[in-house]
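Researcher: We're teaching a course module on how sequence relates to structure. For the next exercise, students receive a sequence and then see the predicted structure as tokens, so they can try to spot secondary structure elements on their own. Here is the exercise chain.
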Amino acid sequence: MKKETTIYLWVINEGWKPFCLEESKDELLKRNIFISDSARIGHYARIGDSARIGHDARIGHDATIGDSATIGDSSTIGDYAIIGDSARIGDSARIGESATIGHYARIGHYARIGDYATIGDSARIGESATIGHYATIGDKEIINKTIFITGSRNTISWWGKNVINIGCQKRTIEEWKKVYKYIGEDENYSQSEIEEYYEYILMIEKMQSKTVIEKVKP
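Model: And here is the predicted structure for the students to work with:
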């Protein structure tokens, strides 16, 4: 059976209209859209004019790739994610489901952006950085220093903004210091595991005290 993938392209005065990817080579060329033959495009993805999708990249179902956006080789864009106009996603980066990457934002090679995270317009996320689920990075903010730890029970992530994700819970450092023990007991952590995670919190607190959030200069 012949493979057919439905994508959406913007048509002036009509909005997003469906096209068969495999039969739209001329239409893509007219719009200056490049999609590598080895890329995988999910059904109902929206592809903006002049977008570039690299080798072995994967675009999820119902994802949106903005005008002039660049998706690097071997990168993954999750289902329902939105990549803004002129944004650049580095090679082997991973953008989570329903995440939003702002216009002109830059995501470094091998970076990881969590599900439902929001990266603001013109923000910069460094190479191999990890931004947690539901995180918010403001417009023009620069994030280079991040931590991702696989603990004995849950993962821990921090991205320089006084917030720690432990498992599916997100709290400020001060909030974690107040409630870590109660949460650990509610989750049936052993005493040694509770102490382990408290040490992670203190280590991140020390790093936070030396971290200044930079912004892209005009």
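Model: If you want an answer key for the exercise: Residues 191-209 form the longest helix (19 residues). The longest strand covers residues 6-11.
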